[in-house]
Design brief:
Elements: E1 13-19, H1 23-34, E2 39-43, E3 55-56, H2 60-67, H3 70-75, E4 79-81, E5 83-87, E6 94-97, E7 106-108, H4 111-124, E8 128-131, E9 135-140, E10 144-148, E11 153-161, H5 168-172, E12 176-179, E13 183-191, E14 201-206, E15 209-216, E16 220-228, H6 229-235, H7 240-248, H8 252-256, E17 268-271, E18 275-278, E19 286-288, E20 294-295, H9 303-323, H10 329-354, H11 362-365
Parallel strand pairs: 1-2, 1-11, 2-8, 5-14, 11-19
Antiparallel strand pairs: 3-7, 4-7, 5-6, 9-10, 10-11, 12-18, 13-16, 13-17, 14-15, 15-16, 18-20
Helix pairs in contact: 1-4, 1-9, 9-10
Length: 373
């Protein structure tokens, strides 16, 4: 483990404990530590497995600069993403160039390295980071009394749930996940793909959902089928052969990977369901950030930028709660803002799906209206 990712010290009292070391959790910890707060960050993984979410929108650039990590990001060697091509609302491929954004490009990244980079930056700012560690118990008695999977016991004034779509901490505290769909992503990678002329995101709609392909550093192409969990189970799409058969039924997507020198890796399935974490009516000092608070459909392309923005809001709210523990109004304001974001997102998601090819299947008819399930 790099020295900059320090193990938690024997000092167990912190201003803030953040559970989850993805972009939202790491960015919140980075901001709080940079402002002088004592912060502990618990990340259950060791950043040793692939992560999804490989294409970052151009709007990521000012957010990373504001966090002070732009140079570290560039050092990862991300591939520029020149735009998006889609077979979505027409049988012809439509193109959108990122040159129109003013930032020049988006980026194709190795998300494992990207997330590790943000965690490193949080540690460099003074955060005590513990990898391979989860939060398994919490109790509030004026301070949070927390139990970690490695046996450590911590206390904190403020607790932040950054556990992603599972929202493990918030749900254990009585919050409820309001789910809007059952979307999953079934993904695999190909090596040996010449990506020099492929530096764009390709989206192709199909009857059971839509395909996403994008290049990664190191002559790798990632492909992901977005569909609903019940559809995936019905067609056994997490198995290699049915997944490849489905891929071969596409047009542009299948052509994009036919130059690979090896078969795709075994498909892995990830939850991509949209949800809003509905907080119970209590005033305990805890906040949910990123996907734990509001998880969005990858079609929106706003996952990581949204995570970094909510991390900024959560850090400001947590800092206020540390200084003014009896003033819980900022919690209400924070949740109200997330509710507004959720309403806007659902409207935007409905607009995206409304222009898709008219596939008369359950996947598409379910998305005519943003109905909670």
């Amino acid at each position: 483990m790099p020295a900059r990712l320090r193990l938690l010290t024997m000092v167990t009292a912190y201003d803030v404990v953040v559970a989850g070391g993805g972009p939202a959790g790491a960015a919140a910890a980075l901001r709080l530590a940079g402002s002088g707060c004592s912060v502990a960050l618990l990340e259950r993984s060791r950043f040793d497995r692939p992560r999804v979410g490989e294409t970052l929108a151009p709007s990521i650039q000012p957010l990373l600069r504001d966090l002070g990590v732009w140079e570290q990001f560039v050092a990862l060697g991300p591939l520029p993403s020149w735009g998006t091509r889609s077979i979505w609302s027409s049988t012809e491929t439509a193109a959108h160039s990122h040159l129109e954004t003013g930032y020049g490009s988006g980026w194709h990244v190795d998300r494992r390295l990207f997330d590790r980079m943000l965690c490193d930056a949080a540690a460099a700012a003074g955060t005590s980071v513990s990898l391979g560690t989860s939060l398994i118990g919490s109790r509030y008695d004026g301070r949070w009394q927390l139990t970690c999977s490695n046996g450590r016991r911590l206390t904190a004034r403020v607790l932040i749930d950054a556990t992603g779509r599972s929202a493990t901490i918030g749900r254990s505290l009585g919050a409820r996940r309001l789910a809007f769909d059952r979307l999953v992503g079934i993904t695999a990678q190909w090596s040996g793909v010449d990506v020099s002329a492929e530096q764009y995101l390709l989206i192709e709609s199909v009857p059971d959902g839509w395909w996403y392909t994008a290049p990664l550093p190191g002559d790798v192409m990632v492909g992901m089928l977005m569909t609903d969990a019940d559809i995936s189970r019905h067609h056994n799409l997490t198995a290699s052969a049915p997944w490849r058969n489905h891929l071969e039924s596409t047009t542009a997507t299948a052509l994009r990977v036919d130059t690979a020198t090896c078969l795709p890796t075994t498909p892995r399935v990830y939850s991509a369901a949209s949800h809003r974490l509905v907080r119970p009516g209590d005033t305990r000092p805890w906040l949910a950030v990123g996907d734990a608070a509001l998880a969005v459909d990858p079609i929106s392309g706003s996952g990581v930028p949204r995570a970094l923005r909510t991390a900024e809001a959560a850090a400001a709210t947590a800092a206020h709660l540390i200084l003014h523990p009896v003033d819980t109004a900022p919690i209400t304001t924070y949740e109200s803002t997330r509710n507004t974001e959720c309403t806007t997102y659902l409207s935007t998601r409905a607009d995206y799906y409304a222009i898709a090819l008219p596939h008369p299947t359950s996947f598409w008819t379910r998305r005519k209206l943003p109905v909670a399930s």
